[in-house]
Amino acid sequence: MTSRLLDLAPALSPQRWALARGSRLLGLVLSGLLLSACAVGPDYQRPEAATPVAFKEAAGWRQATPGDALERGAWWELYGDPQLNGLVESLNRSNQTVAQSEAQFRQAQALVRSARGAFFPSADLSVGKTRSSQGTGSSNSSLTSSSSGIRDTLNAQVGVSWEADVWGKLRRGLEANTASAEASLADLAAMRLSQQSELVQNYLQLRVIDQQKRLLEATVQAYERSLIMSENQYRAGISGKDAVAQAQTQLRNTQANLIDLIWQRAQFENAIAVLTGQPPAGFKLAESQSVPALPSIPLSVPSQWLERRPDIASAERAIIAANANIGVAKAAYYPDFSLSLQGGYSSSTYEDWISVPNRFWSVGPKLSLPLFDGGQRSAEVDRNEAVYDQTVAKYRQTVLDGFREVENYLAQLKVLEDEAVVQRQALESARESLRLTRNQYKAGLIAYLDVVVVQATALNAERTMLTLEQNRLLASVKLIAALGGGWDGNTDLSAREKADKP
């Protein structure tokens, strides 16, 4: 088309020449824009996933669909522990694992901005000097050597190019990058929720250990008194040496258990330090006199919570990206249409380099289409379709895993609640039996061996009750995490992240 305009140039006035050239270029641009209304490749549709109408472990549940943008609160505040709240806030600010996920999210955002930039024309400026040989003839330039046939050329040019998104390749690429960025954002939320859950579990176990430590310390003091009593009775000839040995064995075993708790507590304390982004050497948690209470989790509207699971949202958005990549691969079958414009100055001397006689320009469309690639494009389409099938299967499995986890933790909490009722009754009976046995021993009615057996039973009942309380607390944390976090209050995403969300 450009060559045809050049052929007609002598017959046209400068004004008509410019008008004719501009109208044809405008027509090309408009044609490209009209063609770009279509986009090859399949449009995304959410795949079906096997989801139950209701959970068998609780009534009032309905089907869940990914909705991680729903609000959630600071769920750790349900445990009513100000120190725990402060630790979680420190984790939100300083956890390095979360920081890695946040950096990955920013990388995905940058890819989205890059994909958006492909829709706009690109311009570049180049200035350079080249030296070339044109044979043994002479040169008129003062910068060339006539004896060597070497010519110097000075160039300064500006180039503008624009690719029309005729078949939707750029739009599908932007769709894929946007979905990947949203999946990365969901991964960030999932990692933060996972780290928060781990910290809360470690903290609750540490507080249960504090309670066990106080129990064993009190038990050690009681056993020390029993040992003294046994030694006194032995010296008085009331009891034998075996009673003293039994008392000593019972005391030493309990002291060993107490020492074992010290390193267990240190492990949880060090884990909490790392989760909050602090070196363990400078981190210390003072012992607490109480264990956080088990929160009351309403089961009337749980579907809203499961919908916000970030791993489900991430899996679905990965499908969107894979679906869009199929369109990108199919667009490779169609020709690429682009417009380019170049202009500048070229000269062999510095003196008249930037002048009208040395200017040059070129403008025109370009259509390119690979004719043969040995099946590479077809293979790329097949590969992207296989990736799509893989992400669909992963999404369905993630949904199934989500329902399984909720079912498991609901069942666990229900069983542990029933077990706690029975265990509490057993503990009360053990305490009463120990009181009666001690009175009988003091009255000289039974041997100390009988007391040792009852004391061991009572101590085991106390520790079993604490372990049961710990398991109920941990199950509640895991259930909340399986539901995607809390159910009211502030959103899980910071204001900055929501503002940057593509």
From TrEMBL:
Compartmental location: Cell outer membrane
Region forming the signal peptide: none
InterPro entries: MdtP/NodT-like (IPR010131), OMP_efflux (IPR003423)
Biased amino acid composition, Low complexity: 130-149
UniProt keyword terms in alphabetical order: Cell outer membrane, Coiled coil, Lipoprotein, Membrane, Palmitate, Transmembrane, Transmembrane beta strand
Keyword flag Repeat: no
Gene3D superfamilies, alphabetized: Outer membrane efflux proteins (OEP)
Stretches the record annotates as Disordered: 126-149
Membrane topology of this protein: Lipid-anchor
Family: Belongs to the outer membrane factor (OMF) (TC 1.B.17) family.
Protein name per the record: RND transporter
Originating organism: Pseudomonas lundensis
